[in-house]
Amino acid sequence: MDGTPWGPLSLPEAGAFPAEGICHLWPTPTTNADRYQALLDQAELERADRYRVAHAKDTFIVSRAAQRLVLARYLGCPPADIKVARDCKHCGSADHGRPYIAGTTLDFSVSHSKGWLLLAVVASGKVGVDLEAVSDRAAQDLPDRIFAPAEQHQFLLVDRSQRAAHFMKIWTRKEAAVKLTGHGLAAPLSDLDVTGPTVTVSPPPPSWPQHPIHLTDLPTQADLEPTPAAISAAAPTFRAALATTVPIRAIHLSGPIPSPELNSNADPE
Known about the structure:
Layout: E1 22-29, H1 42-49, H2 54-75, E2 107-113, E3 116-122, E4 127-133, H3 136-141, H4 143-146, H5 149-157, H6 163-181, E5 192-193, E6 200-201, E7 214-217, H7 221-224, E8 238-244, E9 250-253
Parallel strand pairs: 1-9
Antiparallel strand pairs: 1-3, 2-3, 4-8, 5-6, 7-8
Helix pairs in contact: 1-2
């Protein structure tokens, strides 16, 4: 892959965890799902078959496979040995908690939108990532329901032509934060203020962490270099953000996702 909306990729050294304060960000398109199906377990394949929309099914398959392929590269094991737990620490459910791997300091988070997936990996603390395509309709319908007072004030000061992008900046910061904590939408988004470098929450929901949650925006190439070469009228405009318990000092755009063919567990003939 020559490039992504966030810029060109390079592979981190196999087996080397990210340094403290560094996030490895793995972007990948949610296409070619057929080549990844063999990496899913039976329960995941059955869940994939329940999707009625093709792109949603493809996204699920690519996401689950990418998690195994990337984490196996760090941990030096076959992808089939990666066991991702999803038990909820708040309600005890076995299948809707934030994903994690027991027995390692690696932490990761996944998000997807409009044909792209982001997998964020850190080795110190916890991480949440959210990716969204900019939507004019969401910017019109949702601010009054999910913005804290300071966010509403800031939003109204933004030029109308930029409000959709600004809305998604705030939205991705909030979503990244509640993905990090594992609360999801159980934490009312209007109680979170993400206008600063860390999240403030009032009142904090049960089990909200005591440590600061740091926020990092993830600009695209079009944001950094708004030139005709970086912008396609047919391409969606993205906003993405990280929430982390350790301040992020650098992002390493990592990839491409390791090939499933090179990670086959089949015995050689």
